[in-house]
Amino acid sequence: MVLLKESRPIVLAFIRLLSLLSSFYQIHFQQQTMKINNLFFLFTLVIVTLARGDECLIQPPYTGLSVVKLTFSDVESREKILSDLSEICEIKAVQDEYTDPNADSVELILTQEQLIRAEKLLPSRSIRVLMGDLGAAISHERETSLVSPAESEGFCTDDTCSSDSLVAGTVDTEYYTKYHSYEDFLQRWETLASTYSDYVKLETIGSTLEGRKIHMFRVGQTSEEKPIRILFNAMQHAREWITTMCVLHTVETLAADAHRKKAWSSNVQILVVPIVNPDGFVYSHATDRMWRKNRNPARSCRGGPAGVDLNRNWGLDFAGCESTSSDPCSDIYTGPEAFSELETQALKKLFETEKGLKAHIDVHSFSQLVLGRWSYSDDPPPNMEEVNKLGNLLNEKLSSGGKQYSYARGKTDLIYLASGVMPDWVYDAHNVMSFTYELRPKSMWEGGFMLPANQIIPSAEEFLESVKALIDYVTE
Ligand SMILES: [Zn+2]
To answer: What domains appear along the chain, each with residue ranges and CATH number?
Structure first.
């Protein structure tokens, strides 16, 4: 939807009026200030985008675009500067759920013209260029961190091919030195299941609009009548490639341990959905490295499927006021109703049918965070003490690799909340302890979604430490 040029002055006048109202509320309703600011920020982004039109879009291959962190002195300055920048090109933020604990700063993808304008409007100390050329960074990742089609061929057809042969009882660390394509993963998953047929089952829990299966590993042999189960799911968001590498490494390690009779699994089963959003993942490989949502074409955006943010499509506080959008072009588009998407339906059904679930981790990147409940509200969860205790334990284990993670919950820690997210629904609807992980790195400065491949194994190892701690916790 694009507003006519004639109506833009009216819209901009409306924005100025909102700005005055926001100032008024800040003075008189201090306790509500942050919430109003957040609402105002999101609302303004939508309005200025509508007012600007589609003449300049931030889109692949992102050549010459910078990722920049802007810090504002106050909310008026932020709104004015973002409004000014939006007159040049659209405003596109790069963050996952709650990566910015400071409401006065934001990480954006900017054109060079926008960056020059920002430099005129803000003091230099308020501008930090995190990535000089996003397009070049994406190309660099493809050349250095991704298994090439030729290598992929080698992985799968050569005698020494590591995707179709595994040595039972050992972890094939070579596989975790680069990122893999969807086809590579499928091959590897079959190999894992056949190598460890006593301990690993590869199941299908649903399928997508583009016809791909949503797979799940069931790891651990159990003869118990009532086994304890833990569920991990990765890649609700397509661009978060490190998440699948980490959960896959965990599946392989636990299977190898079980094979060597290292007892971890006598009455525990680990369920792992390695890619919740395969359509989005394939698209992030083929076309848009920064793609986040699924590929639902029910609503279109810029001539293609708008897609739905799967982690805004869950039933608790669906389409609430925290970090959601009804604009199909938005990265946080909720979809038309809760559980409108095949992917969220598949996982919902899993929770409704799987017995004995004691804990759940929704794995994302990036920011190095463990997030406890709630995400949609600052209210304490029913057993906040236990939530905080386990959250801090997981955080400590994730930090064991030398990178400092932070445990956070509620507005005190995060400021930006989020409505309609998976772990909130899991905890509320099924009383299962549920956390969000935001894996490495800390910021776009260190690669953001494009975590260098030499950090896959360190990330996977610290992730595994947290998994083992969680297994111990639920079996104590
Ligand atoms: Zn995410």
So the answer is: 8-134 (3.30.70.340), 144-475 (3.40.630.10)
